[in-house]
Design goal:
The protein is α/β, with parallel strands linked by helices. The chain folds into three domains: 74 residues, Winged helix-like DNA-binding domain superfamily/Winged helix DNA-binding domain (Arc Repressor Mutant, subunit A); 109 residues, Aspartate Aminotransferase, domain 1 (Alpha-Beta Complex), CATH 3.90.1150.10; 217 residues, Type I PLP-dependent aspartate aminotransferase-like (Major domain) (Aspartate Aminotransferase, domain 2), CATH 3.40.640. The chain is built from 16 helices and 15 strands. The strands form four sheets. The chain has an eight-stranded mixed β-sheet, with helices on both faces. Helix 7 packs parallel to helix 8 and helix 14 packs parallel to helix 16. The protein is globular, with a radius of gyration of 23 Å. Keywords: Aminotransferase, DNA-binding, Pyridoxal phosphate, Transcription, Transcription regulation, Transferase. GO terms for molecular function: transaminase activity. InterPro entries: Aminotransferase_I/II_large (IPR004839), HTH_trans_reg/aminotransferase (IPR051446), PyrdxlP-dep_Trfase (IPR015424), PyrdxlP-dep_Trfase_major (IPR015421), Tscrpt_reg_HTH_GntR (IPR000524), WH-like_DNA-bd_sf (IPR036388), WH_DNA-bd_sf (IPR036390). This is Aminotransferase class I/II-fold pyridoxal phosphate-dependent enzyme.
Length: 450
C-alpha cells in the first residue's frame, strides 16, 4: 500500500480523485483495498483535510470507493448497479422486470409502411415539426400557465436526465432523489459523479419535510415523479403538490425535473410541483411505457433557458433523435386504434395490480396497488430473505433495498411485476409470498417491520 500511496497526487479534490481513479483503472488498487485515512493522505499530498474529504466524496459519488466512517474508505467492488429488465439466464418466473406487457405494446408495422418521404439532412431542425405540434398540445394542457415553455426531443427519459444534469451540474453537486428511487435515475446520478440526497416518499408522494431537508443540504437539482412513482406506485395528491410548490417558491433557481414516465397509462391526475414563478424546470414524458422500451424518445418541456442549453447538446445529424423514429411515434399517437389500445393497456395494468393487492390483503398482507407497472408489497420480514424463499417456489422477485437510498422500511418491501400473470398464477404468487413471509417471521413478535 505504501508504494501505491506515493503515486497519489494533486492539489485539488478533482485532481486527487483522478489520481486515485488512475490507480484503480490500472489495477494498482484492487476492489477492497484500503485507502489512506483523510489525515494521512492530506499530510502526504500536502493539502487541507477538507480537500481530501471532497476527493473521497467525489469517488464515492461515482461508485469508485465505499466509505464506512471510522472503518475507513475502500475501493468499491466491481459490480454493475441494479437495472430494470429481465434477469438473464434464469429458469425462474421473473416477477421483478418492471416491463410493460409485450402483448399490449402497439404493433408499428402499419405505421412503418407510411413513413417513406424526403430524407432529413445535416443542419435541419432537430425536432420534426409535426411531432412538435402534437407534443406542444400534449404538454400545454397540463401546464396552461407556462406560455414560455419550449420543447426538446431526446432519446428517452434517461437521455434527457443525463443532458439536463450535464448542463446544470458539476461533479459532486447534490441531487435530490425520491427514496425509494427509480433505478435509472439513481444510476444516472451516480455514474455522473453527482451526490444523491434522499427525499422520502409517503402515500401522497415526495414529503414536504424531506424536500426542505434536501434544499437545506444544498441540492442543485431535484427529480420528482408526479405519477406512478417507481417503485412505490404513489402519485402526488393535489394538496401535497401545492405544499411542495410553496416550499420551492423560496428556491426558484433549483432545477426541478418532473419525470412523468407513465403519462398516457396513468389512472391518476397530473399534479405538478413546478410553480408558475419557478425559473429552472423541466417536464419529461417518454413514450417507452405505452409504445414500448425500444421507442427511445422523450418529449422534454422546460423553461426557455434550460431548453436552449439542452438544445445545444443536440447537434443536428449526430446527437439528435432520428426523424424516422419521431415520425413513427407521431403516426402511432395519431392513430385512434393505437390510442384505444393504450387505454385498454392502462385499464389492464391497474386492474391486475388491484386484483393482486386485494389477494395479498385477503391473505393478511395489507397492500395498496397504486399506479404503474408493479406493486410495492410490504412483507413482515426482511425482503431479501422472503425473496430467497420465493426462489425455492419458482419465483424471481426484486427486494426493495435495491431501490433505497436511506429508507430502512424498503428492506421489508418487494417490488413485483404481476400484470402478465394469469388468474391462477396471480393467486399462487400471492399465496407463495404470504407463505414465504411466514417462513421467515412466523410469530407476531418476529413479524414487526419498519
Amino acid at each position: 500500500m505504501a508504494d501505491d500511496v506515493l503515486t497519489i497526487g494533486g492539489e485539488t479534490a478533482a485532481e486527487i480523485a483522478d489520481s486515485i481513479r488512475a490507480l484503480i483503472d490500472r489495477g494498482d488498487l484492487t476492489p477492497g483495498a484500503a485507502l489512506p485515512s483523510v489525515r494521512a493522505l492530506a499530510e502526504l499530498v500536502g493539502v487541507n483535510r477538507n480537500t481530501v474529504v471532497a476527493a473521497y466524496r467525489l469517488l464515492a459519488a461515482a461508485g469508485a470507493v465505499e466509505t464506512a466512517g471510522r472503518a475507513g474508505t475502500r475501493v468499491a467492488p466491481r459490480s454493475d448497479p441494479a437495472q430494470e429488465g429481465f434477469a438473464a439466464d434464469t429458469v425462474l418466473r421473473d416477477i421483478g422486470t418492471g416491463n410493460p406487457d409485450p402483448a399490449l405494446i402497439p404493433d408499428p408495422s402499419h405505421a412503418l409502411s407510411s413513413l417513406a418521404g424526403r430524407p432529413v439532412l445535416y443542419g435541419e431542425p432537430t425536432i420534426d415539426p409535426d411531432l412538435e405540434a402534437w407534443a406542444s398540445q400534449w404538454i400545454a394542457k397540463d401546464l396552461p400557465e407556462r406560455a414560455e415553455l419550449r420543447l426538446t426531443i431526446t432519446g428517452g427519459a434517461v437521455d434527457a436526465l443525463e443532458r439536463l444534469f450535464a448542463d446544470a451540474l458539476t461533479r459532486d453537486d447534490a441531487v435530490g432523489l425520491e427514496d425509494p428511487c427509480f433505478l435509472s435515475a439513481l444510476r444516472t446520478v451516480r455514474i455522473g459523479g453527482y451526490r444523491p440526497v434522499p427525499i422520502p416518499v409517503d402515500d401522497q408522494g415526495m414529503t414536504v419535510a424531506g424536500l426542505r431537508a434536501a434544499l437545506d443540504a444544498g441540492v442543485r437539482a431535484i427529480v420528482c415523479t408526479p405519477r406512478a412513482q417507481n417503485p412505490t406506485g404513489v402519485s402526488l395528491t393535489a394538496e401535497r403538490a401545492a405544499q411542495l410548490r410553496a416550499v420551492l417558491e423560496q428556491h426558484p433557481y433549483v432545477l426541478v425535473i418532473e419525470d412523468d414516465h407513465f403519462s398516457m397509462l396513468s389512472r391518476e391526475p397530473y399534479h405538478s410541483i413546478i410553480g408558475p414563478g419557478h425559473r429552472r424546470w423541466a417536464l419529461i414524458r417518454s413514450v417507452s411505457k405505452f409504445l414500448g422500451p425500444d421507442m427511445c424518445l422523450a418529449v422534454t418541456a422546460s423553461d426557455t433557458e434550460t431548453a436552449e442549453r439542452l438544445a445545444r447538446r443536440l447537434s443536428p445529424g449526430s446527437t439528435w433523435v432520428s426523424h424516422l423514429l419521431q415520425r413513427l411515434v407521431l403516426a402511432l399517437v395519431s392513430d385512434d386504434a393505437v390510442l384505444a389500445g393504450v387505454e385498454r393497456a392502462a385499464r389492464h395494468y391497474r386492474a391486475r395490480n388491484d386484483r393482486f393487492a386485494a389477494e395479498l390483503t385477503r391473505l393478511g398482507l395489507p397492500t395498496a396497488a397504486g399506479d404503474g407497472l408493479s406493486v410495492w408489497v410490504r412483507v413482515p420480514a426482511p425482503a431479501r430473505a422472503v425473496a430467497e424463499q420465493l426462489m425455492r417456489r419458482g419465483w424471481l422477485a426484486r427486494p426493495g433495498d435495491e431501490f433505497v437510498l436511506a429508507d430502512p422500511a424498503a428492506t421489508h418491501r418487494l417490488r413485483l411485476t404481476v400484470h402478465d400473470l394469469s388468474d391462477t398464477d396471480l393467486a399462487r404468487l400471492a399465496a407463495d409470498v404470504a407463505a414465504s413471509a411466514r417462513a421467515i417471521a412466523p410469530s407476531p413478535e418476529a413479524s414487526t417491520a419498519p
